[in-house]
Amino acid sequence: MALLHLLTRMRDDWTLNLVAAHLDHSIRPDSREDAAFVVEMAKRWNVPFETDRLPPQTLTGTGNLEATARLWRYQFLAQVAGEYQVDGCMVDVAVAHTANDQAETVLMNLIRGSGMHGLAGMRAVTPLLLQNRPVPGVRVVRPLLGVSRSEIMRYLKEHDIPWREDPSNQDLTFVRNRIRHEVLPYLIKINPQIVASLCRTASIMGAEAQRSEQYTQQALAATRLGNEGEGTDFSSHVSPATPGGASPEAHTRQVFDLLAFRDLSAADQRESLRAALRELGRPLTGLGFDAVERLRLALCDEDRTGGPYSWFADVMLTRIRNAFSLHHRDTTPFAPEHPYLDQTWRANFSAVELTVAGEIVVDRWTLRCAEVDRQELPFEWAAKTRDSSEPRPGPGAHRLSRWEAYIDADTVQQLGLGTPRAGLRFEPLGLDGHGKPLADYLTDRKVPRFLRAGWPVLFDGERVVWVGGHQIAHSVRITPRSHRVFHLYWEPTCR
Fold first, then answer.
1. pLDDT at 235 over 50
2. Is the pTM of this model over 0.70?
3. Are residues 45 and 70 in the same domain?
4. pLDDT reading at 95 higher than 90
5. 354: which of 1, 24, 330, 420 is 20 to 30 A away, CA to CA?
6. Which CATH number belongs to the domain containing residue 25 in this structure?
7. Domain, as residue range, for 153
8. What is the 3-class SS of 188-255, one letter each residue?
9. 404 and 464 both lie in a single domain
10. Which among 142, 266, 151 is positioned nearest to 202, based on CA atoms?
11. Model confidence pLDDT, tens digit, residues 194-214
12. Number of structural domains, the chain?
């Protein structure tokens, strides 16, 4: 009530477009009276208002009642903010956290064993978060964070402003209430200025966190890798990202040199992991010390490869020999430098027909099919697609690219580009009658697990004709009896 009254006094000078928003959680029998009170005061002060009420029992049996109620409340506030957003301008949701709330938060985080960021407490301005993700164009602002609760009460009385008390604030089953009613009063006996002292600690820790950010960025620049120059097996060295700046893929993945990461101090390692999460657009709210430390120790003490493994929220960890990637759940850990059919492609297509003299464009790559006469084959075609009765290439012959192949055109009906599917079998060249599940073949060829879903495969109906980058099927090999030949090849798309 104090905050709303202050903002109504300032709205003309600050050109504020005020809206009062109230969500009735339906937890207490008298909650309807609170909502009616808000509406009455908003009308009295000529402030537009938005209210809503959760159905009864919505929050019953939900575990952490405070956290669940807060989630519903902020979903409501985000919805109201979106309704009043104009032309994408930022909308501020003003909440009335006070200096006492800040002191309680610092103590709670100290009890949990938080580090510097936790002891910095609440910030005056933060993104509005839902499920640990920021709501675009909406901020939470805390104008009263430096004002004590006693000053708020004095302001209400001086201006004859009515207010209502939430009885749940007296419930000592909640940790914050126990700190408010038991711990802080005891600490006041030791230090009458404990609230101001704890707020000062928060301010100091906040400034220290900002100061440490420059060192964190240096650590990131020393350990973070770009995606340029990555080998297909993702085990070769990759080129460093631009120092001090994020790579183009920073919003979906962060790739690190594992050996360089291990050379950092433990503090820099922790901050690098936290900073990577911010670079991925995921706030640190809810990320505890234990989650960071478990990951840090695993990266330093274990040499296993694999993934993706779940780390925090929708951020995953994938490890290779000398690097690791933190990435969104629906993103490949490393940018493929070969044809790859990503999730967007797979969501829109099950298979795309490839015609003679036709092409299929996939991101930065183009698949083409050209018909050539059997007698016009380049000598090196036999490097990967020869029948045993064909002559072997000479010692100076050029080997085919992994991403091109020659097949007998008369052995196929209609070619189609797709990705591996459950139940498919593949009979690779040289294994006549000895096919195997395509999934096993990809495993045997050491195709990284995170790439298998989008690996480009050429089909003829349900028959696998060519596993891109690897082998053609035995049934489409070129023999002395072949007359018509298809040249299949991927090449970079010019942009």
1. no
2. no
3. yes
4. yes
5. 330
6. 3.40.50.620
7. 2-205
8. HHHCCCHHHHHHHHHHHHHHHHHHHHHHHHHHHHHHEECCCCCCCCCCCCCCECCCCCCCCCCCCEEE
9. yes
10. 142
11. 999 999 999 999 999 888 888
12. 3
